[in-house]
Amino acid sequence: MTKICIYGAGSIGCYLGGRLLAGGSEVSFIGRARVAAQLRNQGITLSRYDDSRWKVPPERIDIATDAAAAAAADLVLVTVKSAATPTAAAELANVLRPGMIVVSFQNGIGNADVLRAALPQNTVLEGMVPFNVVERGPGAFHQGSAGELEIRHTPAMQPFVDEFRKAGLPLSQHADMPPVLWAKLLLNLNNAINALANRPLKEELSHRAYRICLAMAQKEALALLKRAGIRPARVTPLPVSWIPRVLGAPNAVFDRLARTMLTIDPLARSSMSDDLEAGRATEIDWINGEVVRLAQRLGQTAPVNKRLCELVRDAERSDVRPSWTGEALLAQMRAAAGASSALNEIS
User: Fold this and answer.
1) 205-228 pLDDT, tens per residue?
2) Among 175, 203, 225, residue at a domain's last position
3) What CATH number has the domain bearing residue 240?
4) What does the pLDDT look like over 270-288, one tens digit per residue?
5) How many domains does the chain have?
């Protein structure tokens, strides 16, 4: 049996690893001492928005706090936050055998490149997790939205495809992953808005003002991607270029259209919202910040996404968790956009 190692026992890592374990795969984890103690005592309890449940008992949990544990694996899934990618790359470079496969299941665009540069003797693949996972208690992880795992196609990955299928996590494989990563990032631009709103995702998206904020951020990013010659992949039933218009539609129209696009648990929040709640640094620089950096490379500006970055950083430094109303946040976005009629016309 192949051995799979999860490097980064956070919400995504524990959920993916737990599902693979429940499907019969041999899985080990690398994580912090606090998480290791929890999993050894509690095991892993998994749930999904459709009321599916899985339980992995403590005796089946193999978790270490040292990267050396990855040496015995055949496949390594990197699931740490983007800020920790350079550390992960350096640690794995010291222990992985040549030829081992590494998959970056992380937010952002460039994490696989960071890993690839440090691991020239390994096959490093871009991956994408489209669904939301929240930690509901020690060892308890809940998938709050729908979607299938996406990964760059390579023949070397084929021996592992059946492992994911048996776990109920089929892999959608692509020859070209950057368009898929950008499509996911366009959807993830809502993470900052959800974190600032301090509301469940489903409730936030029921308010048109919040949706217009997201539409403005997406429209800005789409214009930059077009200038850069990048066409995001279609990862929802609607083409990505249509989504800003749908977001700006009146509530009754949006509700009808969204039923074909969104399956979200009523209590689910973005990972960025969870990070603010826990007092952790967010991944704002690898989500909205990616749009700002793209604009800079093109000699352009991205005022809406830049302002969202600023507001989230302010929230990280604040002792009081902000809860922006949709109208107040939209006023910030419109002020940032200034005279840009292209961004303001959707409202």
Assistant:
1) 999 999 999 999 999 999 999 999
2) 175
3) 1.10.1040.10
4) 999 999 999 999 999 999 9
5) 2
